[in-house]
């Protein structure tokens, strides 16, 4: 079996995606053979969280500590260089197949009660493609006896097209439209949340009017999203030739994390894609309680998003 798990291919209307079973990961996504996300090889250990499904929390829990239901919890520090618990508990779990069709797959895994998260939650992940792009829905179902804290989101690195330099893609050359009026500021060393502030106070992160990203560093959560009449927010990333990629989601995700994939020590991955991660809650929501979902026993919660070609 490839290192990334079973390979599940779905295709329709010019879109083709390959889902890897470890982490219910979006390994590749193309439209008419053009990459829309940064891919990786089937037999590679997935680079970090590229394309992974994040649950039961997205982003960071500071120091891996939180209190819920009057009980203090300590999670494993899966981001040791910053001392946080990062991106949930399912990124390296093998999901099982529930449904495999030509244009749709459904995978599932159970988070077992464990140190730091003594709750039992079944997570179902659906991917499907149609004329509107790739749709992903993540559903959490509390199958335990106690209420559980819950949050989710995806981790794709979007690709608009080749850069004017290497030809392998590059964030600096792309134009970003990010309709967010607020940004969560963070500490420079550990990226721990500080405060929600207006992007007008931080013009380097103000992309409400589409503009070239250039050399701006972004690894921040945004909110105050402008939405259409249907409640949908859209992020758009375009290359100089007008081609690009978009991502859309509804009010169930009031936050989006954006990251310019800065890895200066690793030239092959440095700024090769833009992470766009709709989230049901902000970083460290297990502590702040902001937009945190409480899953009562037997309850379910679903959130979804869509990636499409421009």
Order of helices and strands: EEEEEEEEEEEEEEEEEEEEEEEEEHEE
The strand count comes to: 27
Percent of residues in helical segments?
Answer: under 10%
Q: For the report, how would you describe the main beta sheet?
A: 9 strands, antiparallel
Label the overall shape.
globular
Q: What is the CA-atom radius of gyration, in angstroms?
A: 18 Å
Termini separation comes to 34 Å
Structural class: mainly beta
Taking strands numbered 1, 2, ... along the chain, how are they ordered across the largest sheet?
10-11-12-13-27-23-22-17-20
- Name the average pLDDT: 96
Q: How would you explain this protein's 3D organization?
A:
This protein has one helix spanning 285-288; strands spanning 7-12, 15-20, 25-31, 34-35, 53-54, 60-62, 65-68, 71-74, 84-86, 96-100, 104-111, 121-130, 133-142, 148-150, 153-154, 157-158, 175-177, 180-186, 193-198, 211-212, 219-225, 233-238, 244-249, 255-259, 274-279, 293-295, 300-309. By secondary structure, the chain is mainly beta. The strands form seven sheets. A nine-stranded antiparallel β-sheet has the order 10-11-12-13-27-23-22-17-20, with no helix packed on it. Strands 16-25-24-21-18-19 form a six-stranded antiparallel β-sheet, with no helix packed on it. Strand 7 (65-68) and strand 8 form a beta hairpin. The longest helix is centred in the C-terminal third of the chain and has 4 residues, at 285-288. The radius of gyration is 18 Å and the shape is globular. The model is unreliable at 164-168 (pLDDT under 50).
